[in-house]
């Protein structure tokens, strides 16, 4: 995957004018040899960019590049995508699924909601994870060893079952969203029990927090259709918990990375993969220009767009890609009230929030996959064994596949150190007695997936640009009139 410096407008978009008011999705396997282009044009509405990125992410697709433009009330995006092992999208049902999933409000009476099985075997749509009948237990708290074990023990003692959920840790804070039922068969939890469970879980959390004086929050909410996406909800919880406040101020980006050639940039960034953010004001155009560099990883674009959306910033233009192991993102944004990021204090806060959004899902610790026949008390049993062996959790993802419970756990020692193989073997032997299988998971040695060919970067325009200097710059604005006024073809 390569970062393309400079603006990008796909030359072979269908004429937008011919379909004004009707969103369109094009799945293009011809233009690029190494990836599929997913092109979307639509009336711009609140949150539509996040919906697009969320859908592609939930489909277990790798977004290697993205070019976004949404001035003039119209949105035009191009996503370069492959599956998780670098292959083009060849499933004939995928284009229709993406079209129907992205624009369902334009297809009344078009039949049942679409469903799709991803390359990793996950089901999106009907038949996939459904938490609409589950109560949601949400919490934010000071992180500590055995936290999830304590919470799940309370749930089991009160006849509750964790059907699915996720928990994250960052900067000494922990947040979780657990979907709870009365039984492993999915029987709904009676509303009369919600308040008691919330009170008991709060008491478990409060037992520690009263000593340290740390803040915490616990809530049990009723089942509801159309819940906020779980991972987006975790971002919201950790943001509201102010996990971004700890640590030093973010380091500014290396501006030269946004204009130099890929080979030079790759050598320059080989050892520089910490998350960096710079924010400038482009007063002539009324935009804040956000530039970010970080280690490339799955779901990075989703996490960044989540943070900007939930801070009420609107992305008008963006280009996203990478140079070697380093992901490079550039966004032209305004607040929903029309402001840019004006003050230094606001720049610092936005920078910290973006770094936190990236780092919450950064991969640390030993990754293990756990499988077992789903039953009440399963999560409590497993986390208790981890606690007994001096292991703590950095991140947890729980789901159910048919009658089997599947969990991904990232483990460290109680002191935050690296887990030795002997400890994992001991845990594996212990949980095997409970009919639980445990396997260590080794992620692919490189990210993103290796592709067959490279895509050369376009030449960089030679003329001077308005300040601040940027990779989109004046060339983007030479096309903006066409985008805003007649929605016709746009070529660079």
Walk me through this protein's architecture.
It is a single chain. With about 500 residues, the chain is α+β, with helices and mostly antiparallel strands. It has eleven helices and 18 strands. Strands 1-2-4-3-13-14-12-11 form an eight-stranded antiparallel sheet. An eight-stranded antiparallel sheet has the order 10-7-9-8-16-17-15-18, with helices on both faces. It has a two-stranded antiparallel sheet with strand order 5-6. A hairpin with a 4-residue loop joins strand 11 (about 275-280) and strand 12. Mean pLDDT is about 80; it is low at about 1-20, about 105-110 and about 450-490. It has helices at about 50-60, 95-100, 145-155, 195-210, 230-240, 260-270, 300-310, 345-360, 380-390, 420-430, 475-485, and strands at about 25-30, 35-45, 60-70, 75-80, 115, 125, 135-140, 160-170, 175-180, 215-220, 275-280, 285-295, 315-325, 325-335, 365-375, 390-400, 405-415, 435-440. The longest helix is centred in the middle third of the chain and has 19 residues, at about 195-210. The radius of gyration is 23 Å and the shape is globular. Helix 7 runs antiparallel to helix 8 (about 345-360).
